[in-house]
Design goal:
The protein is mainly alpha-helical and about 80 residues long. The protein is built from four helices and no strands.
Length: about 80
Amino acid sequence: FEVDLLRMRTREGMAIARANGKLPGKSPKLSSRQRVHILKLYEAGEHTIGELAELFSVSSATVYREVLRARHDRI
């Protein structure tokens, strides 16, 4: 019974958060402007992934992920 109440309250709270525009999960590391900028720098070929990661204070995996997303979106 207690577990069912907890589940119900959790679902209600999540529904209220969604209604208020707050999505569950982590917030993105890069803003949309930063994404565009990082992709332009990468496509120019003047910086390595590691340099871009250091410039934007993110991990290299984040830079790779953004590059892959951009490629996927173009297809």
